[in-house]
Specification:
There is one protein chain. By secondary structure, the protein is of the alpha+beta class. The protein is 58% helix and 10% strand.
């Protein structure tokens, strides 16, 4: 439950071993490399942008080849693949695959070229099919569509924009040009969209006939063939047949590379790793024969790494403590119960170097609040069992996803606990099933009380407020602890104890009043009204006098008075915990509604079938919706009500130089068998 102590690591080694050392650091993933400053002289930095660009291009080519092969030999996938993680391989397997890089990339280029050839052929087929479609209306024309006439005649081959008969065309032309010269007209074909015509006249009347045709919508064909259309269609069909045969042969050529599919996948990762490595190389400084590296490493990994580098590569490794005034990358270390909730903290912000890591305390409240909101033993069992199976089955699950699955596993346990406390197992499914199908009075009794019955909801609301007050006060307590730890004990009095007195005293006073008895069910003795009032008054005075400390007297007093107004924010924070009741009731009521709908058909076979269908669909929807609601609102209670009392954050997460690949994960500790 703390920020891991980091050390600075400096590495100096022969430049000939730089590649091996960088790859070893990348596989281990325990060092965050920092840019080294240098003042020229014998030291130089390496410009690697061109190399990285080439590596990313090669990675994209390998990925393209892999995607092409997957079209012909698809991998079996399922919804659970997201849990599998990357396939682990040993360092020996990695280097054996790397030795075949040139061969694999040559094959990848060939596959890409063959696929491009396929695309070109398919594009040609589409082009030819379009031409055929355009020529079909002209297939009865027995001359070239490029025919424009002879020395003494003029010919027109084109379309009119609607379906017209021979007589209609003549009438339209006569209307446009009453003095039209003699001409011959033939209707080649007609559809509802157009009419294909062939017209011929004497050469001296070309302009007159052309003008008349254009006025009635004449247009030349989109596709014009120098051969008679029927002959051209036959030629194009022949070309399509040949292209289809070539496509089959090309596809067979591509399929010959089936054995290289996984190799292409490996190369995609390999070149990404090389690009990442060369990006880190820019942070190093080099001489003609040596190189220097500076970075951060956790104290628990430092000694082992130093020994490994020294023994394996004869590297000089220096470890040193980091001055207190320097910010460092943050790595958290928590127990198995708290570690899964680190992702929630990271979503908000990492703590600074010497700031209190709230993950452990937050985890305790997180699981409680999530369980109170989801609050059904059946739902909790479903969640925990599903997460437990996933954790047991998928050993290579990515670390971030594994944390989330573990978190929901513990949330499921908490949900089961609160479901037992409230007497909710898939709502009132036990009671409904007993009455509907067995005419029996079955119960799933509440270990504490059922919040849906009678005034129990008001009782639970009071407990929600109590949990909220505890949660907020713990946050204030952490703030006080940090003030004392940092040598500012008076700040703990001014900024923490004052609010304990004001808010706590106000609560005691309220609980002593008869006006709240209907809600709480009890009233504190009158003496607590006096005690609470005195405490609240002392807290208010402290806030007025010291919350504006550091300012001039008048401004300080005004700041203090305004500071007391902050009690309203504490009131709203406490009221926010009513969501623990609201979401818990929503989960239970919706579950009961689905149970009642499912039992509407009564007993018997039909009733059992209907109940099963409604039960499965309804409760699945309820689990999905309310689990999401519980997750969102639990996060909100941590981010706003809890962190707002003490947490600053702003630290940079530890980002070690490691393997950031898509398909494979190289492991040092895997042995070939």
């Amino acid at each position: 439950m703390a920020v891991v102590k980091m050390q600075q690591i400096n590495i100096c080694a022969l430049r000939t071993k730089r590649k091996s050392i960088m790859e070893a650091l990348q596989r281990r993933g325990v060092v965050e490399i920092s840019p080294l400053e240098y003042d020229g002289g014998v030291f130089v930095k390496e410009e690697t942008s061109q190399h990285r660009s080439l590596f990313m291009k090669n990675s994209a080519s390998a990925a393209r080849a892999y995607e092409i092969m997957c079209r012909y030999f698809p991998e079996k996938t399922s919804m659970l693949d997201m849990f599998k993680g990357r396939q682990p391989i040993s360092a020996d397997e990695y280097y054996k695959a790397v030795e075949k890089t040139k061969e694999i990339m040559r094959d990848a280029s060939e596959v890409i070229a063959l696929d491009k050839s396929l695309s070109d052929k398919k594009a040609d087929i589409a082009k030819y099919e379009y031409q055929i479609e355009a020529l079909v209306p002209w297939k009865n024309l027995d001359i070239s569509m490029r025919f424009k006439g002879t020395d003494s005649t003029a010919a027109f081959i084109g379309t009119l924009p609607e379906e017209l008969s021979y007589e209609q065309v003549l009438m339209l032309l006569a209307q446009q040009q009453p003095q039209l010269c003699p001409f011959e007209l033939e209707i080649i074909s007609s559809t509802r969209e157009m009419t294909c015509i062939f017209a011929v006249c004497r050469a001296e009347y070309r302009d007159m006939l052309e003008d008349a045709l254009k006025k009635i919508g004449y247009a030349t064909p989109a596709v014009v063939s120098k051969y008679p259309p029927s002959q051209r269609i036959e030629q194009l069909n022949g070309r399509i047949t040949n292209l289809n045969n070539e496509i089959v042969k090309t596809e067979e050529e591509i399929k010959k590379y089936e054995a290289q599919r996984d190799s292409f996948k490996f190369m995609e990762d390999y070149f990404i790793m090389r690009a990442d490595k060369y990006e880190e190389l820019e942070k190093l400084v080099n001489t003609k024969h040596t190189f220097f590296l500076k970075g951060y490493v956790s104290e628990k990994s430092a000694i082992q790494l130093k020994r490994y580098l020294a023994e394996t590569f004869d590297a000089v490794v220096e470890l040193s403590d980091i001055p207190n005034d320097r910010e460092i990358p943050i790595l958290l270390s928590n127990n198995k119960l708290a570690q899964p909730v680190e992702s929630v903290l990271e979503t908000y912000s990492m703590p600074k170097r010497f700031e209190f890591d709230p993950t452990g305390i937050m985890a305790f409240f997180y699981y409680i609040f999530f369980g109170m909101m989801f609050s059904d033993a059946g739902y909790g069992l479903v969640m925990s069992i599903a997460c437990g199976i996933a954790l047991l089955k998928f050993k290579n699950m990515e670390e971030g996803l594994k944390k989330s699955v573990k978190m929901f596993f513990f949330c499921g346990i908490s949900t089961t606990f609160w479901g037992i406390m409230y007497g909710s197992f898939f709502g009132d499914a036990v009671t409904v099933i007993g009455k509907t199908f067995f005419n029996a009075d079955w119960k799933f009794p509440a270990l504490w009380f059922d919040p849906i019955q009678g005034t129990n909801s008001m009782t639970l609301l009071m407990f929600c407020f109590l949990f909220g007050i505890i949660h907020i006060f713990v946050g204030l307590g952490i703030s006080g602890y940090m003030s004392i730890k940092n040598g500012r004990p008076l700040d703990a009095v001014y900024d923490v104890l004052s609010w304990y007195l004001l808010v706590g005293g106000g609560i005691l006073a309220l609980l002593s009043m008869d006006m709240l008895k209907s809600m709480t069910g009890f009233t504190l003795p009158p003496i607590f009204l006096t005690i609470g009032g005195i405490c609240a008054a002392i807290g208010a005075v402290i806030i007025i006098l010291f919350s504006g400390r550091g300012s001039k007297p008048v401004k300080r007093l005004l700041k203090g008075i305004y500071g007391v107004y902050g009690v309203t924010s504490y009131l709203s924070d406490i009221l926010s915990y009513s969501r623990l009741l609201a979401l818990g009731l929503a989960t239970g009521v919706i579950a009961q509604v689905f149970n009642q709908i499912g039992s509407m058909a009564g007993g018997g076979v039909i009733g059992a079938i209907l109940f099963t269908i409604v039960f499965l669909i309804g409760h699945t929807l309820n689990i999905g919706i309310n689990a999401l609601g519980a997750y969102v609102h639990t996060n909100r209670l941590q981010f706003v009500e809890f962190f707002g009392k003490f947490y600053e954050g702003g630290g940079e997460k530890f980002a070690p130089f490691k393997i950031n690949t898509k398909h494979y994960n190289i492991k040092e500790d895997i042995k070939n068998g």
